[in-house]
Amino acid sequence: MGGLPLQEATSALALPGTESKQNQVSAASAPTLDSKPKKRICCACPDTKKLRDECIVQHGEEACKKWIDAHIKCLRAEGFNV
Question: What is its main location (predicted)?
Fold first, then answer.
């Protein structure tokens, strides 16, 4: 056949400037350590939030340290900085 090898043929067909755009898209979609949480804070950890809120209503904030700490731990595991 005498054609170019497949690698060279595909790079010869690439339009100028498209490679940098492709690299930008893949870099933007790659997760980073400083990425934002996927949920809003009000929607994260509904189980611990419910237990915390019920305890505070019934017993007051001082008596519910265990549930408050559990909810904070859950939020941090979801990526929130609280």
Answer: mitochondrion
